[in-house]
Amino acid sequence: MVEKKSSIGKVCSVIILYWGVSISMVFVNKHILSGSFGDNDVSIFVAWYQCFSAVIGIQLCGFISRKTKIPVKIPKIEWNLLLKKDFLRFSFAFVASLTMNNLMLKHIGVAFYQVARSWTLIFTILFSQCLLKKNITYKAIIACLIVTCGFFIGIDQEDASGTLSVWGIIYGIFASLATALGGIFIKRVQPIVEGDSFKQAYYNNINGVIIFFPLVLSTGQLQQILYSEFIFQPSFWICMTISGVLSLSIGWVSVLQIKHTSPITHHVSNTAKSVLMTVLAIMYFNEEKTMLWWGGNFLVIFGVMYYTYSRMNEKMDQELPDLTIEPENKHSHIV
What we know:
75% of the residues lie in helices and 0% in strands. By secondary structure, the protein is mainly alpha-helical. Helix 4 (85-107) packs antiparallel against helix 8 (166-189) and helix 6 crosses helix 8 (166-189). 37% of the residues are buried.
């Protein structure tokens, strides 16, 4: 439910801000990874730089705050928290998600982004059952079947139009898996940072810088950047820095949207944002899609919305007072 202090105007502003940051981040990353700055694969370096620029940006805010006396609280780095097993698991899932997401964007179009990442819902439901021991309801199964149908219809239509990338699909599935794992591990991380989302994002990016760096070196992407012609191009570093700022901002605006609306509304907003991003991508890149292609996208979106709707009804049922004589099984959980 939206808090009373959050006016309609404020809620709309927050949702628009979230949509703007999220859509911009995908388009900027696609611009960087699609060969605008050479044909070399720099997807891992881009992911590392996103984390690096986020950490430097936070440190810079802290420095400015100390010099100008502007009250900006920067979390103190506590290495014992950063190296906790649950936090490391979350950070490794984050690194895997960011890497696979960038590799996926390199091989697919922005319009196909929603379908390529659609398995996030399926993996989330599976991991909730396997790791959190939550039961899977028939509604969750129906939602998964709808999303799966949309996924394969989308693949078929991409293949028919000659734009299908097998590697893009594979990276999309692995990105979905890593994102779902991160969503599970985040529940274990929140108590470590005492529910401070800014501290969580800051620590996660610090770990990301450390974890990504050996990958950047081993893949030779750092060397490619150092010896490339665009290392001296301001436009390259401007795009990279904007990407890093947007990468950090997306976590903040997500929390802001949940704060002024609700987790369920956040999922609905995210789905609606994906529709808008698909339409904008098709208009921007001047693409033409068949009715079946749109049908596949619709099924994916409908499956996610159906699952969100069932979760919303479940939460409403849980809030109702128990008027039965025999209490229900308090240990049953629904995904």
